[in-house]
């Protein structure tokens, strides 16, 4: 039976929620951990890396994790999933149309076996004032929702489960 690692970074918890949903739908022994909790990835047969963006950038810890583990990621044909709010538009769920994922892939030398892009969640009621105002501004510029009293989840859970099935058949 395969031993699978889902390594992730999250800001507000949506990437963790996606990683956990994947783990519930993937066959085998699945371990879900934040990057900083992982000591050694060599014990895993398959690896999936997930990360969200904030203010248009993936976190530095994602880049460090990929750089540190590139050899093992290549050997295990590791996958990557990115989580961002522009992916609430279906055309932005494709690498060629998602500027954030495209920039990330251009900056690293590792080439993921498969890349998935999921829309995140907009949790206005949990944001600190600065983040709330900044995200409202970004949403206004991208024709997104700006009502600060509403939380919205844009993740396509069916797409997440479909990807889990792809992993199950490899």
Descriptive account of the structure:
This is Protoporphyrinogen IX dehydrogenase [quinone]. It is found in: Cell membrane. One of its GO terms (biological process) is protoporphyrinogen IX biosynthetic process. By secondary structure, the chain is of the alpha/beta class. The protein has 2 domains: 133 residues, 3-Layer(aba) Sandwich (Rossmann fold); 33 residues, no CATH class. It is built from 6 helices and 7 strands; from the N terminus they run βαββααβαββαβα. The strands form 2 sheets. Strands 2-1-3-4-5 form a 5-stranded parallel sheet, with helices on one face. Strands 6-7 form a two-stranded antiparallel sheet. Helix 1 crosses helix 6. The longest helix is centred in the C-terminal third of the chain and has 13 residues.
Features:
170 residues, alpha/beta, Rossmann fold, 2 domains, five-stranded parallel beta sheet, globular
pLDDT averaged over residues: 95
Amino-to-carboxy terminus distance: 12 Å
Number of domains: 2
CATH architecture title of the largest domain: 3-Layer(aba) Sandwich
Widest sheet: strand ordering: 2-1-3-4-5
The shape is: globular
DSSP strand count: 7
The percentage of residues in β strands lies in: 15-25%
Catalogue the unreliable spans. Answer: none
CATH topology of the largest domain: Rossmann fold
Cα-based radius of gyration, to the nearest Å:
16 Å
CATH homologous superfamily of the largest domain, by name? Flavodoxin domain
Largest sheet: 5 strands, parallel
**What is the share of helical residues?**
25-40%
| Number of DSSP helical runs | 6
Order of helices and strands: EHEEHHEHEEHEH
Structural class, judged by helices and strands?
alpha/beta
State the name of the first-level CATH class of the largest domain: Alpha Beta
């Amino acid at each position: 039976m395969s031993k699978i690692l889902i390594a992730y970074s999250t800001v507000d918890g949506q990437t963790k929620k996606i990683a956990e949903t994947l783990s519930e739908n993937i066959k085998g022994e699945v371990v879900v951990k934040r990057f900083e909790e992982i000591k050694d990835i060599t014990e895993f047969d398959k690896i999936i890396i997930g990360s969200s963006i904030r203010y248009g950038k993936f976190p530095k810890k994602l880049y460090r994790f990929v750089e540190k583990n590139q050899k093992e990621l290549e050997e295990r044909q590791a996958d990557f999933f990115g989580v961002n709010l522009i992916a609430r538009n279906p055309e932005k769920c494709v690498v060629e149309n998602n500027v954030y994922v495209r920039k990330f892939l251009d900056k690293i030398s590792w080439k993921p076996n498969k890349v998935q892009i999921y829309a995140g969640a907009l949790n206005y009621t949990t944001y600190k004032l600065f983040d709330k105002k900044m995200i409202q501004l970004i949403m206004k510029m991208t024709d997104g929702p700006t009502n600060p009293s509403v939380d919205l989840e844009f993740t396509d859970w069916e797409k997440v489960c479909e990807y889990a099935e792809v992993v199950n058949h490899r």
